[in-house]
What we know:
The complex is a heterodimer of chains A (126) and B (148).
Chain A: H1 10-17, H2 23-27, H3 30-46, H4 50-55, H5 61-82, H6 90-111, H7 114-123
Helix pairs in contact in A: 1-5, 3-5, 5-6
Chain B: H1 13-17, E1 31-40, E2 43-47, E3 54-59, E4 62-63, H2 72-82, E5 86-90, E6 103-109, E7 112-113, H3 114-120, E8 125-126, H4 138-142
Parallel strand pairs in B: 3-6
Antiparallel strand pairs in B: 1-2, 1-5, 2-3, 4-8, 5-6, 6-7
Amino acid sequence: MADAGQFAQDADILLRVGTNASATVKAAGCFDTIIIDVEALINCLTRYDWSTLDAAAAIHASVRGILVDTGACLAAIEGIIWDMSGYTSRVEAEDMINVLRDKALFNIAILRDKKVQKFITEKGAA
Amino acid sequence: MAHDFVEFPELTNRQLQEHVVSPHPQITEDIWVDVVKVIDGDTIRVRWEKRDFDFPVRFFGTDAPEMNEGGGEAKEYLEGVILGEEVLLKINKNKRVGKYGRLLARIVSLGMDVGQMMMMLGYAKGFENRNEGKIPDLNKVLRFEQWL
C-alpha cells in the first residue's frame, strides 16, 4: 500500500477498521483511491479546501488530527463495506460502521463551523 | 374570525381540511429555500420561490436556548453553516405548524440534518428533553394556588 491521502494515511485507517478486518482490507491498496475521494467529500461538505492547505503544511499539528480522524473514519467505513468477511458477524461490522459514521458526522459538524475553520487556519503551520 | 395571513402565513392541517383559502401557496411537501436570516438557534427566516415574502421556520424536534439564556453561540453556528445557503425543508405532514403559527421542518444542508448537527455539538437539545436540567416552577408543579 502506498500512502496516497493528504490527511489520513493507511496506518490511521487500519487503526479504525479494527483488528478483525479481513486480510484483504488490511493488505490491498483499496484505500489509495478511497482516501482521495473521501478527502474531496470532506472539502465539499465543509466548503473549505483542507487538502491544499495541508499540502502547503499550513495546518498546525495540534489541530490537524481532526482532519486525519474524519478522513480515516470515512475511509474505514468504505473499507468495511468493501469486505466484511473478517468480522465475526455482520452485526459487528455494522456496529463498526455506526461508530465510525457517528464520529465522522460529529467531526464534519465541527469542521463546518466558520469559527472552527478560522481557528484552524489561523493556528498556522506546524 | 379571519385568519391573519401577514402574521401567520401557514394554515394548520385543520384549517386546510376546513378549506380555509390562503392568499399564498401552502407548504405541504419538502421544498428548497434560501436562508435569509437566522433568528436564533432554532428559528430561521427563509425565502421560497413561490412566495414573495420571507417567512419563519422553526426547527422540528430540536430546541436551542433563547438569546437571553446563552443562545448566541447556537445562532452564530447556524449563521456560519446555513446563512445565505440553499437548504431543504423536510416537512412532517402530521405536524406542519407549531406555536406562533411557524412552519416546522427538519433543515437539511449538504445532505446533513442541521438540527442533528446542533444537538451533536450541544448547541440544542431534543425537543422532548428541552426542560432537562431546569429547576421546575414549584408553583406550577404543586399548584399552591389551589390551597389558598
